[in-house]
Amino acid sequence: MAMQPHSKKRVCYYYDSDIGNYYYGQGHPMKPHRIRMTHNLLLNYGLYRKMEIYRPHKATADEMTKFHSDDYIRFLRSIRPDNMSEYNKQMQRFNVGEDCPVFDGLYEFCQLSAGGSVAAAVKLNKQASEICINWGGGLHHAKKSEASGFCYVNDIVLGILELLKYHQRVLYIDIDVHHGDGVEEAFYTTDRVMTVSFHKYGEYFPGTGDLRDIGAGKGKYYAVNIPLRDGMDDESYESIFVPIISKVMETFQPSAVVLQCGADSLTGDRLGCFNLTVRGHGRCVELVKRYGLPFLLVGGGGYTIRNVSRCWTYETSVALGVEIANELPYNDYFEYFGPDFKLHISPSNMSNQNTPEYLEKIKNRLFENLRMLPHAPGVQVQAIPEDAVNDESEDEDKIDKDERLPQSEKDKRITGDGELSESEDEGDARRDNRSYRVPQRKRPRLDKDAQPKDDVKAEDSKDDVKNVSNMEEPKKEVTSNA
Amino acid sequence: MAANMYRVGDCVYFETSSTSPYQIRRIEELNKTPSGNVEAKVMCFYRRRDLPNPLIQLADKHQMAQSEDSPVAMKLKKICLKTPIGEEQAAQAVLDPAIVAMEEESTELPGGGEGLPPKQRHQAKHRELFLSRHVETLPATHIRGKCTVTLLNETESLLSYLNKDDAFFYCLVFDPSQKTLLADKGEIRVGSRYQTEVTNLLKEGEEDTRTSSELETLVWTPAHGLSDRQIDQFLVVARSVGTFARALDCSSSVKQPSLHMSAAAASRDITLFHAMDTLHKSGYSIEAALSSLVPASGPVLCRDEMEEWSASEANLFEESLDKYGKDFADIRKDFLPWKTLKNLVEYYYMWKTTDRYVQQKRVKAVEAESKLKQVYIPNYNKPNPALINSAPNAASKGAVLNGGTNGTAAVSPSLCASCQVTNSNHWYSWGPQHLQYRLCGSCWQYWKKYGGLKTADVFGESEAEVVRSARAEGEETALSVSHRPHRCTVVNCAKEFKLRAHLARHVATAHGGPGEGARPVMKTRAAFYLRASPFTRLARRLARALRRPRHFARSPFSPINLHQVKHECTIAMAGLGGAEMRGAGAAGVPRARGPVGAVATRLAAALGTAAPRAQEWLVLTPRDRMPTPNHVAFPKPPKAPDGSLMYERVLSRAEQEARRNEAAAQAALPAPPALKRRAYDDVNGLDRGAGGASGAREGGAPPAKRPNKHPAPMQRPSREQYAAMCARAQATGQPLPAHVFAHVNGKPTNLTGRGGRRHVISWMDAPDDLYYRATEAAKSARRSLSCGDLRRGARAPWRAMRGALVGVGALANAGALLGGGALAGAGAGKAAGAGAGAAPLQLVILD
Ligand SMILES: [Zn+2]
Ligand SMILES: [Zn+2]
Ligand SMILES: [Zn+2]
């Protein structure tokens, strides 16, 4: 199956018309109303009629306790603004009160948000859809027994748990400006879920997401954190997103992807500090969509609500593979979008503190970590070319013994399928100029006995996996589309 | 100009003192004050130089841990930075032998110390900042440019910061109030309480219990066979039906008197969503959908909250919003109980699109105008006061001259104190004034921005000292109240205080005096004296550790091993009898040096020069040929029959107390309030009113300024001690110290604590430095005094001058009249401080 940049996919969209009326409280930046604004834009853009629209069920306590602890969910179910005083101790224990206030309908709100993501995951499992969208989900900070960062129930974890019934490996990508700590923590010790989070790091909520946090136990190297600084713009973002994601796809070989589309990474966000435009943000959706994997899109942060609804509207259009006009259609909340009433927004003149060198260094470090992954099962095993043996043994001396084995194993066995084209582009001039990494990239290409690459995916073919390696091509196509 | 546009979130230099380095702040808010100025609410970054020393050491260890992922470093990191570290723990951590050992170990690790050459390592220290949550407000006009502060990532080398101007990094967060450092890093927790149980893959043939039908309800499907055009048409029809329905509806026709308004109301999203739902429910049959739009009951009318609400409800809502803000629960309770919360929230978000809201917003926008997003600050061009003003040539000439005469300067002032260049367009004076250091333009810029000198080796080890004193200098000339706290310079203390006065108090109370630090922490040091207890005195003689009195006298801050002293003393004392101990405890036998002439001869011999002929004036007059004074200043008291001296009895404290109470009870006259500053005469009365009065004063809780400021020990010597002192005085021919007479017989008062502790008189009591400037009248009055009167006056400056004060006025005390002479002498001046009332003299208090 060839890559289809704007391919028509079966898209399912989850929405409950009540969601917009939950209100976190005076002055609280989290406004579920933004989900309704998005919904109204979708209707008036004519995107609504192109998707399957579902009203999700309200997730039951049983469903939520697949991840969360029983007492925490029991607490969420019983707490109300009028009986808060009886729960002082538990409120402290579960971190409910300040950032995560008790508001009217709190539990219902969690039920709808979680219900959407779970239903969406089941939908993907049944292969009844290729892309599912739940803008009411994406509450990535919620912990097993603790609310955090405006999130109470972690719909993402619940959704991924559902996906794991059918998918050996699930990839979670988080483009919220905040670190996706709740999801990362939930899956920190498993190798079946890789969490990849791009976020502002340093003196920023929730404080986790250091480059060195890479997972633990079996999950070591399955948490990928990209710490970023203020002012990330579209170009920088793509320059780190593309190589990291393609490397992750290539090494982890997931069979389903969940993308948290927190819109607080947009320029001008009330709480964010990045400088992304709607286009740059949506580009991530587009890039992930191209892998053709079962794809769950959830919302997340986003506190300048006019931009959040712009963003998610655009990203819905990207998921649908439909182009929409920059001119916003009239809708109930049209006045929110003044003075320009356009879909797309311009970046600000804030300075980007992420220098290309910084991003390059981060990228290289993460690549090193990803190279530690044992080869994914089902990936073709390949004979070691004879000419590489000497080089290899030299290298082995330099590597820590414990960590050496899986890595060199992988280096030796994995074919070059999905390798970045960079090495090819380098041409023959570098063939003999072997650095530590280059020969491993080149080796498969030199090896005449390598089997046809298509065989590699034999086991994953059920999920119609296409490992898209060349990120250059789609880029070109997009520019021609734009 | 973007460069001069400062936005919220920018990191900037702030100049709060012209001579000290810029302060680095991040703009959190920009507010316009009523006077039209812009104030910046800023968050503080601290430089290394702003942090207490133990914390810096800790930070360095953390840095080391950061830069290496070695197990040692990891261990270190855990020890040092587990939780916020208190000052004490910090000090402990520094001393923790385990860490010290690890430190040594780790310096041997490859790549330790970043592998930077020393100069870069030195400069890298200037680029390290410490984030704080401390927020302050500064005038935006003090902004002096932008900089960047980023969290150091371990993939980065420090060199990448050095290669960029105005680039700083931070790793740790400093809490100035708690004086703690902590790593700004959250933690992913591991354990069954945090991770989820991972669902297993369904096995072959295993049933998934999930069915989508239970989880969702289909509301719309794109698989319907209708064209876009057909759907659009249906939507138009739905709107038309809605318009017609409004025309038929009485309540609507009142609200929407025109067809336009009805049509607009019928075009709201709720009608469209309903139309889509209808279409879906009708199985995407336009026909079926149309008929359900127009059921028998009449055309369907969909109204959202916006339309549902009456004008009076809308008014109520606005009123309540004004009153309660967006507390919808309260609004509902007190204003609109017939609405649900959901009604209110939905209405609120729609109401925000209305003109009424927009108008209100405009009013609010005017109010909010004081909050700015950015501010334009032009480049600051005024010359810095430290700029050396004369033309370069003249300046360097002058400097050379100065350098010639001033041999103390370590670096010739004609050079840049940092980079040693001799040519620069601008020169800035830097560091303590008397050292006359100057910096070239570029080094000055460096100093201002990075808070240090480019090279560490110019002053060798002492750079820190220079910088420190320079800092003190800078503080003196601070333009505004500097944020930087005043820090205690005593080793291992480093407490910080907002006000210099508080620091002074701290130094006085906690450390018993001005600390080691070179910086002038206060105008007047706390008054204190060291009272050596008998044991201390004994120890001085017995303990070997204290055998270098000259050394310790020169460097009073150098530590003494108390344990060793105690140990040696106990051993030595074990072999001493009580009498011997007393003898040892009392002031020791003076070393016999022989007559001055002999000393001079000996010295000359030692120096190798010919022994000078004994000068006649060097030869001491034999005791018996000494002239006897015709007036004995301190006549000896009469002898008792047993040969001991008889002294006038001084009342014990209890007795004084009792006597005073008696007097107070008898006389109706109230005693003068203890805290009231005494008038001159009151103080003066002391002299006339015999020694007893002095004792009586002592009883008052806060000791007021004392007229007699010989740093007199409060503890009275024991009878035996006194006898020994007198005997010695007689033997050596020295006069007895004056205070001896005042405190005979009494028991040691409780004013002095345990032996050897430094007793501190509250610094509040320490007088300001002062001197008297004698007026012409005072000078001529002095001339009229006889030699004896003058001498008497000098000795007793508080005493009223008898004798002829012809031209001067009625009462002047001796101290005032004699001014400088009397006052310069040790504590005498303090006494006279209270006597400032003397009319003809002009009192100048040194500031
Ligand atoms: Zn966020
Ligand atoms: Zn210089
Ligand atoms: Zn101190």
Describe this structure in words.
The complex is a heterodimer of chains A (482) and B (847). Chain A is of the alpha/beta class. Chain A has helices spanning 33-45, 61-64, 70-78, 88-93, 106-125, 155-163, 181-186, 234-252, 278-289, 305-320, 356-370, 389-398, 401-413, 422-425, 438-446, 472-481; strands at 11-14, 52-56, 131-134, 170-174, 193-200, 223-228, 256-260, 295-298. Chain A is built from 16 helices and eight strands. In chain A, strands 2-1-3-8-7-4-5-6 form an eight-stranded parallel beta sheet, with helices on both faces. In chain A, helix 7 links the parallel strand 4 (170-174) and strand 5 (193-200). In chain A, helix 1 (33-45) crosses helix 10 and helix 8 packs parallel to helix 11 (356-370). The longest helix of chain A has 20 residues, at 106-125. Chain A is globular and about 55 Å long. Chain A starts with 10 loop residues before the first strand and ends with a helix. Mean pLDDT of chain A is 81; it is low at 1-5 and 377-482. With 847 residues, chain B is an alpha+beta fold. In chain B, the strands form six sheets. In chain B, strands 2-3-4-5-7-6 form a six-stranded mixed barrel. Mean pLDDT of chain B is 68; it is low at 68-114, 391-412, 458-483, 513-526, 668-715, 736-769, 804-811 and 819-847. Chains A and B meet through helix 1, strand 2, helix 5, helix 6 and helix 7 of A and strand 6, helix 7, strand 9, helix 11 and helix 16 of B. Strand 2 (52-56) of chain A pairs antiparallel with strand 9 of chain B, so a sheet runs across the interface. Bound molecules: zinc ion (3 copies). One zinc ion binds next to loops of chain A.
Note the main attributes of this structure.
heterodimer, A: 482 residues, alpha/beta, Arginase, Chain A, 8-stranded parallel sheet, 16 helices, 8 strands, 36% helix, globular, disordered N terminus, disordered C terminus, B: 847 residues, alpha+beta, 6-stranded mixed beta barrel, two-stranded antiparallel sheet, 11% strand, elongated, binds zinc ion
